[in-house]
Design a protein that fits this description.
By secondary structure, this protein is of the alpha/beta class. It has four domains: 6-207, P-loop containing nucleotide triphosphate hydrolases (Rossmann fold, 3-Layer(aba) Sandwich); 218-373, Rossmann fold; 375-406 and 414-427, no CATH class; 503-611, RRM (RNA recognition motif) domain (Alpha-Beta Plaits, 2-Layer Sandwich). The protein has 23 helices and 19 strands. The strands form four sheets. It has a seven-stranded parallel beta sheet with strand order 3-4-2-5-6-1-7, with helices on both faces. A seven-stranded parallel beta sheet has the order 10-11-9-12-13-8-14, with helices on both faces. Helix 13 (279-291) links the parallel strand 10 (270-273) and strand 11. Helix 3 runs parallel beside helix 4 and helix 7 (131-140) packs across helix 9 (165-174). The longest helix has 22 residues, at 374-395. Residues 444-500 and 583-614 have low confidence and may be disordered. The structure holds adenosine monophosphate. Residues 24, 27-28, 31, 50-56, 251-252 line the site of adenosine monophosphate.
């Protein structure tokens, strides 16, 4: 995990200053490797996915070599989608905030050409765009590449998959031979290798090595959550998850303070730990955590290096780590001294590849986590409220108040329940017992690449020159607008809810005695059987078994997988179909009757534990 610091990498001082202002503590592994190569002017092949810090890996060194007095395009970055083009352009703008006269121009399809033409006329040193529209401008001669110093192909495998590789090659052929070239790709299919060989020659290759590491005693879960929803998601988790000490990892020094402050404002005992704090202050914070004077520490990787505090029961990766090694190191801060540990990873939709890579290198599948629902948060608060009342009764300090209330009730002819209800209402005003919780869209996007891809495809391909004369293009909402529609609303339309689907009751050999909760069952089934959580019906927990309603017609291989391979709460699930549910053509209907399952209820719909809505 030892890494050089930004100062020693040799990036230009205005760029270095921006990095410091942003609170970046140290270069990510891909940055530490790529920056010196690109500063040397060499070609680079970077095998890295989103979330590894790859944008800064090329933006910082290339910006360091730019001449801001010249307004001609010096750097061109090609991206597969316009979302990424905008994101990369914004990153350049941020890293160049201290460079006078700097301009970056995003160029992508689906928007009016005129604005882009004006931008190009005004002049920009960095152009970031999608291949179709960039090629359009080259053909119109509104974009000239003859003075280009560097070309970056970002997410090259995505460009290939979306059918842009021919356009990319045409653009590559237009760039001067002297132009420095860098290609970043999460995977290396043969076509990309061929492009690298043809246009990047003997480029230096950097990649994040995926060493296999096993992590024992740590239960690992992940939650798909968009950046702006993280704080909300975290707060809900903190409300319902039983934890002792918690370590939350973020990427920047500024984020440690920000998250810790927000948590403190929400009533949690939290402190920040980062490399800007003096050694004494850092030690003091760690000691406070050890002694239980603070329960949550929000830290960067650097600050939490080697941290060994037994009471850390949970590690939350609020920002995904750059690579697998960092992940293993982070979660290793829990499960100390032979204890059990819990690791929760927040994954933004675009980071699903990093999740997969973590799973591969740890050879462990992370269980998808359902965000605690309003009901659960409410349940927890009610429980705490009741505990407090019971404690207060036990103190024996209420003698004075009983006659007061009795008199009050009699005089006003009101019941004690009404009085208690009114007082409860007052007590909970600041922290409502029934909070209105807006549902967050944390659908399982990481696993359903399919939808992701086709969306992306639509968004960029529609803008290619050969498709220009499609009729109602203007009338179609932009991709962002479309995807901003709550996913729940979409999925409900696309997938009828359980009520419309024939459901069958299954039994599993895990119950309350094993500490199972409905969310564990939903997580295991959603993750292992690929059944979307809204199709998982009623769950009923018994002492040593549970039942769950699932859509009829489960494929045999999935059934066998759940029956033989899947564990919930460290317990084999051993899914079976109780005799009462056996149906024709069902995968299990040819199996001999499972003795144990005979006791399973016929109708689980009555008196059931409700599954969490997604
Ligand atoms: P990327 O992989 O380029 O999409 O970057 C992912 C995120 O990491 C972005 O939000 C960056 O701002 C952030 N980031 C990149 N490099 C660093 C760094 N060295 N320290 C902290 N955050 C970083």
């Amino acid at each position: 995990m030892s890494s050089p610091d930004f100062e020693s990498l040799g990036i230009a001082s205005p760029v270095l200053k921006a990095v410091q202002q942003l609170g970046y503590e140290q270069p990510s592994p891909i940055q530490a490797q790529s920056i010196p190569i690109l500063l040397e002017g060499e070609n680079l092949l970077g095998v890295a996915q989103t979330g590894t810090g790859k944008t800064a890996a090329f933006a910082l060194p290339l910006l360091s070599r730019i001449d801001s007095t010249q307004k001609k395009p010096q750097i061109l970055v090609l991206t597969p989608t316009r979302e990424l083009a905008i994101q990369v352009a914004e990153a350049f703008q941020t890293y160049a905030r201290n460079m006078k006269g700097f301009h970056v121009l995003p160029i992508y399809g689906g928007t009016d050409m005129r604005g882009q033409l004006r931008g190009l006329e005004r002049g920009a040193q960095v152009i970031v765009g999608t291949p179709g529209r960039i090629l359009d401008h080259i053909r119109r001669r509104s974009l000239k590449l003859n003075e280009l110093n560097a070309l970056v192909l970002d997410e090259a495998d995505e460009m290939l998959r979306m059918g842009f590789i021919a356009d990319v090659e045409t653009i590559l052929a237009e760039t001067p031979d002297t132009c420095q070239r860098a290609l970043f790709s999460a995977t290396m299919p043969p076509t990309i290798r061929r492009v690298v060989k043809k246009y990047l020659g003997d480029a230096k290759e950097v990649s994040i090595t995926a060493k296999t590491k096993t992590v024992e005693r740590i239960t690992q879960r992940y939650l798909m959550v968009k950046g702006h929803q993280k704080m909300d998601a975290l707060t809900r988790i903190l409300e319902v998850e039983e934890f002792d000490g918690m370590l939350i990892f973020v990427r920047t020094k500024s984020a440690t303070a920000e998250v810790a402050e927000k948590l403190a404002a929400r009533g949690f005992s939290a402190a920040a730990l980062n490399g800007d704090l003096s050694q004494t202050l850092r030690e003091r914070t760690v000691n406070r955590l050890k002694k239980g004077q603070v329960d949550i520490v929000v830290a960067t990787d650097v600050a939490a290096r080697g941290l060994d505090v037994e009471r850390i029961s949970h590690v939350v990766n609020y920002d995904i780590p750059y690579d697998n090694e960092a992940y293993v190191h982070r979660i290793g801060r829990t499960g100390r001294a032979g204890r059990e540990g819990q690791a929760i990873l927040f994954v933004a939709p675009k980071e699903h590849r990093l999740l997969r890579s973590i799973e591969q290198s740890t050879r462990q599948k992370l269980t998808i986590m359902q965000l605690p629902t309003g009901e659960q948060v409410s349940g927890q608060r009610v429980q705490q409220f009741q505990d407090r009342i019971l404690q207060d009764i036990e103190t024996g300090k209420l003698d004075q108040f009983r006659p007061l209330l009795e008199k009050f009730a009699e005089e006003n002819d009101i019941s004690m329940t009404d009085i208690a209800a009114a007082m409860t209402w007052q007590l909970q005003l600041e922290r409502p017992l029934f909070p209105k919780i807006v549902p967050l869209d944390t659908s399982n996007q990481g696993r359903s690449e399919h939808r992701d891809r086709s969306d992306r495809n639509r968004s960029d391909r529609q803008d290619r020159p050969d498709r220009k004369n499609r009729p109602d293009r203007k009338d179609r909402p932009e991709r962002n607008e479309r995807s901003d529609r709550p996913r729940q609303e979409r999925s409900r339309k696309e997938h009828p809810r359980d009520d419309d689907i024939e459901m069958v009751t299954y039994r599993m050999e895990v119950g309350k005695d094993h500490g199972v909760m409905p969310k564990d069952i939903v997580g295991a089934i959603a993750n292992e059987a690929g059944i979307e959580s809204q199709h998982i019906g009623r769950i009923r927990l018994e002492n040593d078994y549970s039942t769950v309603d699932l859509p009829d017609g489960m494929p045999k291989d999935i059934f066998n997988h759940l029956k033989n391979k899947v564990r919930v709460c460290q317990q084999p699930m051993r899914l079976s179909l109780p005799s009462s549910s056996l149906q024709k053509n069902h995968p299990a209907s040819d199996k001999p009757k499972d003795k144990k399952s005979e006791g399973a209820p016929k109708s689980p719909r009555k008196d059931t534990a409700k599954k969490e809505p997604e």
